[in-house]
Batch of 3 targets.
Target 1
Amino acid sequence: MMHANLMDNYFNLNSVYTEEDFKRHFRIRRHVFERLLHDVQQVNAYFRQKLDRVGHPGFSPHQKVIVALRMMAYDSPTDSIDETYGMFEPICLDILAEFCNIIVQLYKDEYLYEPNQEDLDQILRKAENHRFPSMIGSLDCMHWNGKNCPTE
């Protein structure tokens, strides 16, 4: 039932919500969501729909990825997810952990790297254009190893 509502609201041809609504609700464009959905299903069987112990379909891949994105985008507590998507807290937390692990595995080489000077210069230019000139100093870069970082 929850899967059917999700599909009717966001994914079917005559869906209730538009592309812009999708972006506003999930903080991601639908085509990017569909790429994520495809990629995580290919790599991790957790994101494929399975039958439960009594032979009923379990949570759909769409539901699992949407739940993970909602929790990250809005810092949603699991009880609000339970009310909206019918998933109990332990399931929500498992989904989030699996999703985060698979995203890092899939995209770390492409997107997760220490910025070089060119990257920093580009960020600083954008920040200055938006009247936020010392923005880079407010970033949490503690996980980066630098040769001049204090060790004690």
Note: The radius of gyration is 19 Å.
Target 2
Amino acid sequence: MATLLLRSLCFRRSLQHSSRPVVDVPLRAGSHGAPLLYPDHIPTTPLQKMLLAAGSAGMALYNPYRHDMVAVLGETTGCHTLKFLRDQMKKDPEGAQILRDRPRISLSTLDLSKLQSLPEGSLGREYLRFLDVNRVSPDTRAPTRFVDDEELAYVIQRYREVHDMLHTLLGMPTNMLGEIVVKWFEAVQTGLPMCILGALFGPLRLRAQSLQVLFSELIPWAIQNGRRAPCFLNIYYEQRWEQSMTALREELGISPPPKLVQGLA
């Protein structure tokens, strides 16, 4: 149901987008007469948001690797939390600068050769290593579509694009165990419903050995560091590429990650 509704809404949006002239013009109204607030925006009614939220939650719990469903869930359930996060960013000098500059993280904005030339142990070099070892790309993050506020749409887009940066900072791999640990950290820091759901229900997919390590070591570590560290959305990572990971973790109060047992997932 959610997948069909999502495809229908995206199809309508693609038709509107394809009919738009190449020259710059104001964004047209969506299917319900609501204005398009940013290029990928799809205006939806409260009922459509509710259906998308319910369906995407079921699909995301069934298959946590359905990143499209996880993205829809975050956008349709996190409005009030996104306002809180936006306000927290505005109160922080570094966070406020991020909101002003609107930096994006993608292969088109990253200077990979510069990151490669940075010293071993620096944030930029470790982030590049994370992308290479885990065979992930920053371009896989879905654009925001269902948030009916342009500034809040950027906040959740920023959250998605620094997710891999958070993996790097916390020293967590992209397997199921590592993702759950990051979700616990994010849930404590942001309160986003999709993070809380992922943190609570993700362990259901783990083996007994992994569960033991998760509950005895990793979750307590993630909660402790999530409470102690400042909000990860207030870190202007692009201006800190040369900073050493050790110094950055010390600044943020993040203790070294527990040593994960090889093969746990």
Note: Residues 79-252 form one domain.
Target 3
Amino acid sequence: MAAMRWLLLLLSLVVCRSEAVFNRPYEIRLQNNEYTDVLVAIHRDVPEDMRVVDRLKQIITEASEDLYVATNSRAFLKEVKILIPKTWTKKPEYLPAGTETFERANVRVDVPNPLYGENPYVQQKGGCGEAGDFMHLTPKYVVDKQYGEDYWGPNGKTFVHEWGHLRWGLFDEYGTDDPASGQSYPHFYRTSQGGVRPTGCSAWVAGTNKHTVTGSPCRLDPGTGVYESECRFYPDEQTNRATGSYMFMHFLSQVTSFCHSDPAGDPLSFHNREAPNKHNSLCQGQSAWDVMTQHPDFTNGANPPQKVRSTAPGFVLFEAYIAPRLGQSAWDVMTQHPDFAHGANPPREVRTTAPGFVLLQESDFRIVLVLDASNSMRGEPLRRLNQVARRFIQGTVYFGSSVGLVTFARAESLEHPVISVDSQADRDSLAATVPTTTSGGTCIGCGLLKGVEVRA
């Protein structure tokens, strides 16, 4: 019992901050091109297996390097927290968790979702450009490298694909039949020039169209003007030249970028706005890179590239046309531009994109909620307090936690003694004692003293 940690939560006029801390996803930060405060958590139902932790480190390290390339040297993973469940053996190298919980994790390792099986996926409820809720990886996918790469491609690149969903609100650029969401997007479409193409980005991806059952060449359906419903596109690794896109076929070795709409950029990852895929549908035909550069990570020049590349979009014309005419190199012309003249925006050396890892473990918390039920909370403040407290009890408090509840006005009142929350009924019992009415003056000290007394 001596090792058990206590937490008094005082909820009154600061309920908005409490809601942000306890009910929203962990806040990822990007500063100086470095992502920090990325929270990865392992569910309590996952059997103890240190291979999960070791492989997570490997996958995320690979992903950081791939992410750096895919964002044109603008972002990589600098620090990642891995939350170990309390059901696993305690080790001295594990730091105690604070507000880090599985329910707030950006990336979750959990048992398979019946709708998706072993597939890595991101829960996305928002629209174009809106961050996803969390990334879901299964223990089998994480531990079995060969299995994961055989089905979905290199682990690091798959992580970057899912990061596009999670961080920037991108969507898949391929045709799909998705029974989970009830949304389907055609695998082929007729172009404005009259031909038939596979749904994807970019249009340069090479491959063949085959019947999924017979393996024979696809036939056009006279009713639709496109290939029969059993037809699928199979990319050819050997002949493919396309460099985009991560939201289409990220597993191809040549694919290293997201589709863009810059006419002066790489034509092999130029956005195909005609393709009737989910991304084009929800993002009104914008490219993945267009959506990304409207995100706070990159908008208004935030987190510019850490090193200048002579093939950067916007400078191709200098090399092809201007430089030869003036007898100057492309770099000579570029360094006279205000972007770089007089030493502006010097490169910042990146020695490694390998992230650091912090191992945390869920703590044996005993929590006492101290809630303000005085007349100062009348109306909207009380409604918000009630909402936040109930969300915390029902969504953040995990089974095995010890929780009690105290209210205060002019004097304090014990509404619910500390109990071990071992079932949904326990959660419901606690939630039912959250105050719905106010009375009297405000004695914060009374509430805090009662909270200390209850936890003793």
Note: The radius of gyration is 27 Å.
